[in-house]
Design goal:
The protein is mainly beta. Helix content is 2%, strand content 48%. The strands form 9 sheets. Strands 1-2-3-8-5-6 form a 6-stranded antiparallel sheet. A 6-stranded antiparallel sheet has the order 32-43-34-39-40-41, with no helix packed on it. A hairpin with a 2-residue loop joins strand 5 (63-69) and strand 6 (72-79). The longest helix has 4 residues, at 8-11. It is globular and about 75 Å long. Bound molecules: beta-D-fructofuranose. Residues 156-157, 173, 184, 213-214, 237, 273-274, 327-328, 396 line the site of beta-D-fructofuranose.
């Protein structure tokens, strides 16, 4: 039923029940009463599963909605309720409130002068009840097909990833009520192959201590926390007026969590977030690394039971890249190839101050004795800044706990805080990177570094070979190779360039949209230019050229380039240099062309695979 809007709305008295007869009935089962220019009550009288909330993206000010169940505040959410037009709707789940009186006590911030103005906002008419919320993909152009995305809404950091009984769990920073950052909740997806993801119900929702920021999860094999053998324990930041660390446990393999009644479990007098915990085999206790964000250092704790944490040390003051806040840490051991020695790697996500502006991920290699991390130094005693990715779109990278076979897979949020809220997708906003395995390698100068190797599962989705070439000169004139018509593919190629040569790869479509990659054999660098890659004008920080050192000295380069609908990830020499960049082509890229400036480069092999997904 359409809204009945008449002057009765203003004269209606608020008597006994909810509204008097004839007062604004917005849609069937929904009653709306405006009490002032910024205050509206919405009563749900229908028995449906969802109330659709209409959203208009342009507003910075969200309406604050206190959801009252039988008169008590059950939850508080923030929504950009639409004013002049609705961009999309988001579902408010009523199923937990069946049989109870549900009233939405809404304070808008839309600078209306009078109740009369406020009632004109289109959202009131468009709040409708429904039993099913349609999550069919509407982003046919740019929603990735083999990367993880939320069904709808905003996503940032991956959180609490763990592996158990053949299932990879991935939680993430989610806004269930819009495609911009807000209402931080742990969304949840699962996969058995790290490629195909199944959406699960939200795992941890905001509570009285605040919204649920980033954190980690572990499988408690020895029941140290007292929730049973193999209970899943999550630690996260409760972000309210201050940031505190809280705990939750799950006895159903991470499907649902119960927050610890004694939360918060760690409080400090300054901003600290994104707790990342792990069992330390050598010391027989738990470790936790926590970002002391504004101090630009990481704090290290120990615990016997995941509840009582003792601060042991801090790392990083004045070291490495220091421009932005330090966030989302991780700390894990890796084996030095060809030896049985171990080094510890500390991942430190920073924003801003990444290698090409905005978000970036640096790492430190060193030793860890269970209490203190010490970084390796250069011969002159300084600590080099090392970047894990030389693109613009890989942030908040952390690893899966409890991974099988000694693996250390990681995943990152494939965006950048510079423009994440402006990228031209609406139903979902942001994807994760492909999964990668962390491995150590020695570069051409003998320096130890971390490689990001595409996870082995990715080789299993290789389909038909679309183009192939072997032992060919890369001449001064471009030679072209076909990509699949939908542009979704993996390019795997190896070439050898002579000194001073410049090898150019152009990936383009008939519209002339292109990504240009250049290997400079003299300077041992690879660049990635997305300035003309498609739609780039949604933010001035988006069109960019990124560039990576290639860490080799012999001009021999293997590239694996993964192209999805709105991303390109280049892995060089088995992940020794990596560039992750978003692209938004109007049409799929369908061609790859190669040329070398001096005509002295040799293409050893090239294969373009379509992907079975
Ligand atoms: C990093 C971050 C984290 C925080 C989360 C909030 O992108 O700022 O430090 O926990 O996002 O969504």
């Amino acid at each position: 039923m359409k809204a009945i809007k008449n002057s009765c709305i203003f004269s209606a008295l608020f008597l006994g029940g909810f509204f008097m007869q004839g007062v604004a009935v917005a849609a069937e089962g929904v009653e709306v009463r405006h009490l002032g220019p910024t205050h509206t009550l919405v009563k749900v009288t229908g028995d449906n599963n969802y109330l659709l909330l209409p959203v208009q993206e342009v507003f910075e000010d969200d309406a604050r909605i206190n959801v009252l169940a039988d008169g008590k505040i059950a939850e508080t959410i923030y929504v950009r309720l639409s004013r002049t037009k609705t961009d999309y709707t988001v579902p408010f789940d009523l199923t937990p409130y069946k049989g109870r009186n549900v009233v939405l006590n809404i304070v808008t911030n839309q600078n209306r002068n009078s109740v009369r103005d406020a009632q004109d906002d289109v959202c009131w008419d468009e709040m409708v009840l429904t039993d099913n919320f349609d999550t069919t993909n509407t982003e046919l152009q740019w929603r990735p097909v083999y990367h993880h995305t939320p069904l709808y809404g905003w996503m940032n950091d991956p959180n609490g990833m763990f592996y158990k009984d053949g299932v990879w769990h991935l939680y993430y920073q989610k806004n269930p009520y819009g495609s911009k950052w807000q209402n931080m909740t742990w969304g949840h997806s699962t996969s058995t192959d790290l490629v195909n993801w199944t959406a699960q119900p939200d795992a941890i929702k905001p509570d009285g201590l605040g919204s649920i920021f980033s954190g980690s999860a572990v499988v408690d094999h020895d029941n140290t926390a007292g929730y049973g053998k193999d209970a899943v324990i999550a630690l996260f930041t409760s972000a309210g007026t201050s940031q505190m660390q809280s705990m939750a446990h799950s006895n159903d393999n991470g499907q649902t969590f119960l927050v610890y009644p004694g939360n918060p479990i760690i409080t400090l007098d300054s901003e600290a977030r994104d707790p990342n915990m792990f069992w330390n085999n050598e010391t027989g206790e738990w470790n936790l690394i926590l970002a002391h964000a504004l101090e630009k250092e990481m704090l290290i704790f120990t615990s016997p039971d995941l509840k009582e944490w003792t601060l042991q040390s801090s790392f990083g003051k004045g070291l490495g890249a220091q421009e932005g806040v330090w966030e989302c840490p991780d700390l894990f051991p890796l084996t030095i190839p060809g030896s049985d020695k171990t080094k510890w790697v500390l991942l430190c996500n920073i924003n801003p101050g990444g290698p090409f502006g905005g978000s970036g991920i640096q790492y430190f290699i060193g030793d860890f004795d269970g209490k203190k991390f010490t970084s390796d130094t250069n011969p002159d005693g300084t600590v080099a800044t090392k970047w894990l990715d030389f693109g613009k779109d890989n942030y908040a990278v952390v690893s899966w706990s409890n991974a099988p076979e000694g693996r250390r897979p990681v995943i990152g949020w494939m965006s950048n805080w510079q423009y994440a809220a402006d990228v031209p997708t609406i139903q979902f906003r942001s994807a994760n990177t492909l999964p990668r395995e962390m491995e150590l390698f020695s570069d051409a100068d003998g320096e130890l570094r971390v490689a990001s190797v595409p996870s082995p599962e990715l080789a299993k989705i290789r389909g038909k070979v679309i183009s192939t070439a072997d032992n060919k000169k890369i001449s001064g004139k471009p030679s072209s190779y076909k990509l699949p018509a939908d542009g979704i593919c993996e390019i795997d190629m190896t070439f050898q360039a002579k000194e001073n040569d410049l090898v150019t790869l152009t990936i383009d479509n008939p519209k002339g949209e292109k990504v240009i990659m250049k290997y400079d054999a003299k300077n041992h660098t690879m660049s990635f230019d997305r300035k003309e890659s498609g739609v780039v004008d949604f933010n001035t920080k988006f069109p960019a050229v990124t560039s990576a050192p290639t860490f080799e000295k012999d001009g021999k380069i293997n590239l694996r380039i993964f192209i999805d609908r709105s991303s390109m990830e280049m892995f060089g020499n088995n992940g020794q240099f990596v560039m992750t960049n978003l692209v938004f082509p109007e049409n799929p890229y369908t061609s790859l062309s190669l040329e070398s400036k001096n005509g002295t480069a040799q293409l050893d092999s090239l294969k373009v695979y379509s992907l079975n997904i």
